[in-house]
Amino acid sequence: MPCNYLRDHAGYVAGLGVLDSYGLSLDLHLTTEQLADAAELFATKAPESLKVVINHLACGPRLGCGEGHADADEAAQWARWRSGMAAMAARPSTFVKLSAPTVVHSEWTRDAAARGAVKTAVREAIALFGPERCMVASNFPVDRSVAPCTAADVFELLFEAASEALEGDAASLKRVFHDTAVGFYKLE
User: Is the pTM of this model over 0.85?
Assistant: First the structure.
């Protein structure tokens, strides 16, 4: 049976301490189903100062991805995702990448409701984490293998959603599209 690093975590937690001791950060790839375990582990076992960024909106509620990927009940998937994201957002040194719309809904390029679901996930992540802990990122060309899109299509969608969430505030948009990533990854 494979190890669940979020539950069977002695070595994993030790590694988090090593990252923190060197002033490094952790890019954390999670699914909605792993959010609750991750929130508990990072709230109770990880160094508070360790900067963590959740990749790809924690794979969102994964709507429209087919059997085996999401609950038949989309409301239950949204509720699980929102709850887990709120728990992760409660940790001040946790950030989130607004990226990979195809993990939220694989039909976002073909269906207005699916596009709306992606925008909802982006808006809610910004509401939970604030622009100072959100950064736009890319999952391209992987997104293109799932949905017919260009990188420009992805960034246009993310810009629309972030603009709506931030009511067009230029300083907050700059933070989400530039400043947060620069600060998180110590690029200056």
Answer: yes
In total, the chain counts a number of residues equal to 188
Q: Which residue has the tokens 């950060």?
A: 25
CA 83 to chain centre: 13
Q: Which of 137, 131, 37 is nearest to 83 (CA)?
A: 37
**Cα 48 to chain centroid, rounded:** 19
* CATH entry 1.10.760.10 includes domain 10-184: no
Q: Residues 58-77: pLDDT tens digits?
A: 988 876 555 444 445 888 88
Identify whether the C-beta of residue 79 lies closer than 8 Å to the C-beta of residue 35.
no
- By C-alpha distance, which of 94, 184, 171 is closest to 137? 184
Q: pLDDT tens digits, residue range 105-120? A: 888 888 899 899 999 9
Helix or strand or coil: residue 180? helix
User: DSSP character for 65?
Assistant: S
3-class DSSP state of 52:
strand
Q: Give the chain's radius of gyration (CA, Å).
A: 16
